[in-house]
Specification:
Structural class: alpha/beta
Order of helices and strands: EHEEHEEEEHEEEEEEHEEHEHHEHEHE
Strand order of the largest sheet: 18-17-16-14-15-19
Helix content: 25-40%
Number of domains: 3
Strand content: 15-25%
Shape: elongated
Number of strands: 19
CATH class of the largest domain: Alpha Beta
CATH topology of the largest domain: Rossmann fold
Largest sheet: 6 strands, parallel
Radius of gyration: 35 Å
């Protein structure tokens, strides 16, 4: 049984007795302890007496120790009562937990008390759930401290039933994070704690390659989501994939890129221009698409005037471009417009740079192996396109080099920078959005979404 003498309740620390003095006081005040029958520990005014005989310990509770704090001849003293030491709560596996996903309906209706009740199946809630703020703003996150004393870990993807006002139940998925949380890793398909070993290895490899690429790379790839599986660690180029980006969006993206050290820009654009041809109507669609090509013409002229070389990729025969006669015609229109654009930009006075095109025929594509879905090129098809680009690029500026050991392609967005379209999602113009776009009337009642994106929540960071 543990007892306590707390002199700090009566005196400042510098007037409290020393350890040796407390030993003397106890021997004078209470019955002598047999040698080894008790343990005295502590300092700075707070002392713990651990008595192994519970009966004797209980006899000591309530007895007081008289201490003259200015010497034996002084009349200044305090009486400190021996008390039973209050045991602090000992947690088994306390964890600070962060939960994400409360920015989406219907998870935003979950109260903090409801979250506490849901988490109680995993252990004892130490500090109840609280909203996480960025100054005055909610962040869509919540935090809680919980003792996982039921030996059950909270899954990384925590599925919760939410009852709507209508009485209907919906399942929402919350993302849960805490220290030493085991989770199923999608990268290595194993269950582990902490960073994935493959991720750590890739990160180290990328940091080494980044320096090599920054010093030697002169090429930049900017395009729609068909660039999503290009691996920067396997090619001598920086790669940006604008998911769902039309031609105008790709041109917008290029205008914000640092091209100081770049001499070749490869553009993949035009496929997403075709998506809404049937919704907008042929006349309005052609008008809008021509406006995008006019914007592209100005941008390309600016690039080649500065000595940059540009290579454009034609729109491949993706399944989504073959589903109707109007979309087939729209693809032909876009590819013809690309050829016309290249001829127009290159004509006239000679310029330091030039614009070219990667020539390919529909017969080169195998619908079984060259597309992963209705709109995206497979790794195999992308490898072939990169090889064709290497045939165009001069020596010393090839995309593939023995310096890089990684593959030129990888899983989507794992090796490149994934971006959302900059500008209006409908007409690609800057400084306005779909709500104020002149083409929005053509799409009234239709879903305004980024066609070609994997998820409305898709986010990505530029990788090294």
């Amino acid at each position: 049984m543990e007892l306590e003498l707390d002199f700090t309740a009566f005196l400042p620390t510098h007037l409290c007795p020393t350890y040796t003095k407390v030993v003397s006081l106890l021997n004078q005040t209470v019955s002598a302890f047999p040698k080894g029958a008790a343990m005295l520990t502590g300092n700075r005014g707070i002392f713990t007496i651990k008595v192994y005989d519970k009966v004797k310990a209980k006899d000591l509770v309530g007895k007081s120790v008289q201490y003259f704090y200015e010497g034996e001849k002084s009349n200044k003293f305090v009486k400190v009562v021996i008390q039973e030491k209050v045991r602090t709560q000992r947690w088994t596996k306390p964890r600070y937990v962060t939960l994400m996903g409360f920015d989406r309906e219907p998870a935003d209706t979950l109260s903090n008390n409801k979250v506490d009740n849901l988490l109680s199946q995993f252990g004892t809630v130490i500090e109840p759930t609280q909203d996480v703020f960025a100054e005055n703003f909610l962040t869509g996150k919540k935090k809680v401290r919980i003792d996982l004393n039921k030996e059950i870990d909270i899954p990384r993807n925590f599925h919760v039933q939410v009852e709507l006002a209508s009485g209907r139940n919906l399942t929402v998925s919350l993302r849960v994070y805490y220290r030493d949380q085991p989770y199923h890793c999608r990268r290595c398909t194993e269950q582990h704690v902490g960073d994935c070993p493959l991720y750590i290895a890739e990160k180290e490899e990328k940091s080494k390659i980044k320096k090599v690429r920054e010093d030697s790379s002169k090429t930049m790839l900017v395009g729609d989501s068909n660039f999503r599986c290009v691996n920067e660690s396997g090619v001598m180029a920086t790669v940006t994939a604008v998911t769902g980006g039309k031609l105008g969006h790709i041109i917008n993206q290029v205008s914000f890129e640092d091209l100081t050290k770049i001499d070749t820009v490869v553009l993949s654009a035009g496929q997403n221009c075709i998506n809404d041809v049937e919704e907008v109507g042929q006349e309005a669609w052609e008008s809008r698409t021509k406006a995008e090509f006019a914007k592209a013409e100005k941008a390309l002229l600016s690039l080649i005037t500065k000595g940059k070389n540009v290579i454009m990729l034609p729109v491949p025969p993706a399944p989504c471009t073959q589903v109707s006669t109007s979309k087939k015609k729209a693809r032909v229109f876009v590819n013809d417009a690309i050829m016309h654009l290249i001829k127009k930009v290159n004509q006239g006075d000679s310029k330091p740079g030039s614009v070219g095109i990667l020539t390919e025929s529909d017969g080169e594509y195998d619908m079984e192996t060259d597309f992963t879905d209705e709109r995206h090129l497979s790794k195999l098809a992308m490898e072939r396109r990169l090889s064709c680009l290497d045939d165009i690029l001069p020596e010393g500026k090839k995309l593939r080099t023995s310096t890089l050991s990684a593959r030129a392609t990888c899983d989507p967005y794992r090796g490149c920078y994934g971006a959302h379209p900059a500008g209006c999602i409908i007409c690609t113009g800057m400084n306005h959005n779909a709500h104020t776009c002149k083409f929005s009337e053509k799409l009234r009642g239709k879903r305004d979404k980024v066609s070609g994106s994997q998820s409305p929540e898709h986010k990505s960071q530029r990788t090294g």
